[in-house]
């Protein structure tokens, strides 16, 4: 009888490591599968409509700026007013589309925002870079329209507005293109 007890005890001791190893591997596999399905989003999803509309608005903006590159006067403003209104509305629409996407919120973006705040830099908590850029384009077009209406635009003033608009267009298009990843 003692022999059977020893055999049983011996088999039990051998089975514990096998059983332990099986449970450990099962748990590990479960964790890997669980983590494989987790995603951390640091940016919004790509939206082809924003790229298409920004490309169209950019082309129209540069075409308009080329048409008036030699300067304008307030007497002929009424011929350009509809173009200003059209461009402003297109960039306001782009701003709205860019802001309509949910902003990811997770520990990584919170940490990045905290680091940016410590350096007195703007955080990404309120606007995406493209929404910020589209808004600045609208502001520049509104100022340009007001100046054109009141006193006309000299070629150097037009170049100045063009340079500012170009910077923000580049920022918006670069950010939106990056999202395609």
Backbone CA Rg: 30 Å
Q: Could you give a short account of the major beta sheet?
A: none
Regions with little confidence, pLDDT below 50 for 5+ residues: none
* Class per helix and strand makeup: mainly alpha
Q: Tell me the number of strands.
A: 0
The CA-CA distance between the termini, in Å, is 71 Å
* Overall morphology: rod-shaped
Count of DSSP H/I helices: 6
Q: How much β-strand is present in the residues? A: under 5%
Element-level helix/strand string: HHHHHH
Mean pLDDT: 80
Helix content: over 70%
SSE map:
Layout (H helix, E strand, L loop, with lengths): L1 H35 L11 H20 L9 H23 L7 H12 L10 H23 L3 H24 L3
Helix pairs in contact: 2-3, 2-6, 3-5, 5-6
Question: How does this model look, in words?
Answer:
The chain has 6 helices and no strands. The chain starts with a helix and ends with a helix. It has helices spanning 2-36, 48-67, 77-99, 107-118, 129-151, 155-178. Helix content is 76%, strand content 0%. It is an all-alpha fold.
Task: Please summarize what this structure is.
The protein has 181 residues and is an all-alpha fold. Helices cover 76% and strands 0% of the residues.
